[in-house]
Design brief:
single chain, 61 residues, mainly alpha, 1 helix, 0% strand, rod-shaped
């Protein structure tokens, strides 16, 4: 193999793989926060509306 002849290149490949996995984790967390935060705020707004008026507001639909 080409990479096995150059140990430094192999270590760089491992570093790049670790960096890419960290970037993937960060992107996944970012997407989760972008998706979850509006959902949570929507539900809490809905429940606070129920608590205030005693009935389900039509904002949820």
């Amino acid at each position: 193999m080409f990479i096995q002849r150059f140990p430094a290149l192999e270590s760089w490949c491992k570093r790049i793989e670790i960096t890419l996995s960290l970037v993937e984790i960060l992107v996944a967390l970012l997407v989760l926060t972008i998706v979850i935060v509006p959902l949570v705020s929507m539900f809490t707004d809905g429940f606070s509306g129920i608590a205030r008026t005693g009935r389900i507001s039509h904002d949820l639909y």
